[in-house]
Amino acid sequence: MRKIFATGVAVALLAAMAAAQTNSQATTDIYFIDTEGGMSTLIVSPTDGILGTKEVLLLDAGNLNPPGRDADRIVAAMKDAGVERVDTLVVSHYHGDHVGGVAALFDKVPVRRVLDPGAFVPEQHGNREAGYLSYVPVRQHAHVTIPKPAMKIPVAGLEVHVISSAGDLITAPLAGVRRAPNPLCATAQRRAQDNTPNNYESIGVLVEYGRFRFLDLADLTWNQELELACPSNLLGTVAVYRTSRHGTDWAGAQPLVHAVRPRVAVMNNNPTKGGTPGTFQIVKSSPGLEDFWQLHYSDNVAREVNSAEQFIANFTDRDGGHHIKLSARSDGSFTMTNGRNGFTKQYRPQNGAVTSSR
Prior knowledge:
By secondary structure, the chain is an alpha/beta fold. The protein has one domain (27-352): Metallo-beta-lactamase, Chain A (4-Layer Sandwich), CATH 3.60.15. Helix content is 22%, strand content 24%. It is built from eight helices and 18 strands. The chain has helices spanning 2-24, 69-81, 96-99, 102-106, 130-139, 222-229, 254-260, 277-284; strands at residues 27-32, 41-48, 54-59, 86-90, 111-115, 144-145, 152-155, 158-165, 168-169, 204-209, 212-216, 240-242, 264-267, 291-294, 324-329, 334-338, 344-347, 354-357. The protein has a ten-stranded mixed β-sheet, with helices on one face. Strands 7, 8, 9, 10, 11, 12, 13 and 14 form an eight-stranded mixed β-sheet that branches. The longest helix has 23 residues, at 2-24. The model is unreliable at 1-22 and 352-358 (pLDDT under 50).
């Protein structure tokens, strides 16, 4: 009996030591900020940069209206992360739910440099230029670069690859990705382009931290995703995928989503925007998917189609504002935390066990 007890203690001790070692590793922290169906993702470097502090990459700044709301939510996430400036702001494209919060953010925190797609592409229907027009005065005085696909965005300790920009895409596999035929392309169907052409200009990125990989293609279109995945997948596999275009049927092509094989997907929807039946079907049927996290509960599908309550950060517009935090380690393990209820789930390195806690 004593021998069995001692063995059990030893196993528990080894497990605790392994967990402590994992928790002590440097992390890159990613905050999926609730912008009520817009987009803003804060990425904090795992190591200090040239200025002696951790560097910050911000992907978009949310909505123009209500004024200042989304900028305040970004600042709150920055405070949680212990950072005080944005080193690189990526304005993925010029729709108001992505660029609208930029001017308010510039009034609140220092922003060192900006990447954007360049010239504005006129929309094919009205009332879509307000966000861009609010950005123009800021752009005139900012340090702005127009990135090209395959370039890297400098962030301390990370490899940040530009996948798409200003309508162009990478044409060769990323380093370490083997070109091989994608069998999902045999039945792939292109879709008609909608009348919001600025989505086509989206700057999309893939972030690498050791074995951890995160894909965010902003509002890139379905047909462009097919070009990245067919006839062969140029991106490889990822640990985490943020659903393109807020989880709508204009993006999230199955040959791409299933080829990158995310362990976790995160959707930046709101109750009535995104979260369509087609998105849930494609994401949830992706090989190897473990969990689907949502910034909002979706009213566009039945209750049982939505993820379980602990994986949803917000339920209505009135109770919004809670972010989802991801902390990734270079061994490929990562932790997800729901800012609404504190639910935390640990994802061990690939092929390892998964544990969760409340």
